Amino acid sequence: MEFAQIGANIVKIMRDYWKVFLIEGVSNTLILTCIAVSLGAILGTLVAIMKMSRFRLLRVIVTAYVEIIRGTPILLQLYIFYFCLPQMLPFLKLSAFMWVAIAMCVNSSAYVSEVIRSGIQAVDKGQTEAARSLGLSAGQTMRKVVLPQAIKNILPALGNEFVMILKETSLASTFFLGDLMTSYQKVKGATFLGFECLLIVGIIYFCLTFPLSKVIGYFEKRMASDKSYKNHHKHKKTAQGGNV
Amino acid sequence: MEMIKTVNLHKSFGHLKVLTGVNQTIHKGEVVSIIGPSGGGKSTFLRCLNLLEKPTQGQIFFEGKEITGKKVDIDLHRQKMGMVFQQFNVFPHLSVCDNVTLAPKLLKKKTEAEAMDMAKELLNRVGLIDKLDEMPGNLSGGQKQRLAIVRALAMEPDVMLFDEPTSALDPEMVGEVLDVIKGLVSTGMTSVIVTHEMRFAEEVSDRVLFIADGNVLEEGPPAAFFHSPTHPRLQDFLRKVL
Question: Is the pTM of this model over 0.80?
Answer without folding.
Answer: yes
